[in-house]
Write a structure and sequence with these properties.
By secondary structure, the chain is an all-alpha fold. It contains seven helices and no strands. Helix 5 packs antiparallel against helix 6.
């Protein structure tokens, strides 16, 4: 179910996702907690289930991970919502990435560039963990799914940290666990 948004609300949706793009270190998925806060908790445009489903559908589809932003926008306001969210997320990050790549390419061996690049790793990891929690929390709250969801979270983090298994395989194992009813 999509909502009919006024032009002012569409502009607000666009500017919010524009701002999130600047904060999306590690990819758009790292800002999913604030996307959730904005479109579900604050604006009540979609439900918690619609938000989680939007991410799941987009992640299962082939293509770039950022597609979940378009699905969220579509669920909020149809094609105009998808346009607002995607252009909001892509515009600043594209301009900044191109500008930074050009600037840093000329200074790649400098101490500052090396320090900045090294510092992004723990920041990205923290943002990804918070996104994982936002997506898992509805299942952890339900008594029927609590222990299975926590076990799946622990197994996913353990596999990612201790093995060289690609994230797509870990997601596939989680999907199998869900389909089989283990979670």
């Amino acid at each position: 179910m999509t909502t009919s948004l006024s032009p002012a609300e569409l502009l607000g949706l666009f500017t919010h996702f524009l701002m999130l793009s600047v904060l999306a270190i590690g990819g758009a998925i790292t800002t999913a907690p604030d996307m959730h806060r904005y479109v579900v908790t604050q604006q009540h445009w979609i439900t918690d289930t619609q938000f989680t489903t939007s991410i799941a559908i987009a992640q299962a589809a082939p293509g770039p991970n950022v597609l979940f932003v378009a699905v969220i926008g579509w669920n909020v306001a149809g094609p105009l919502g998808a346009l607002a969210t995607m252009s909001g997320v892509l515009l600043p990050s594209t301009v900044l990435a191109l500008g930074y790549a050009r600037w840093a390419g000329q200074r790649r061996e400098s101490r500052g560039i090396k320090a900045f690049t090294s510092g992004l790793a723990p920041l990205t990891l923290g943002l990804l963990l918070s996104t994982g929690w936002v997506l898992a929390e509805p299942f952890v709250r339900e008594a029927d799914h609590r222990y299975g969801a926590l076990a799946l979270l622990a197994a996913s983090v353990g596999l990612a940290m201790r093995t060289r298994i690609g994230p797509l395989w870990i997601v596939a194992l989680g999907a199998i666990a869900g389909i089989a009813g283990w979670v």
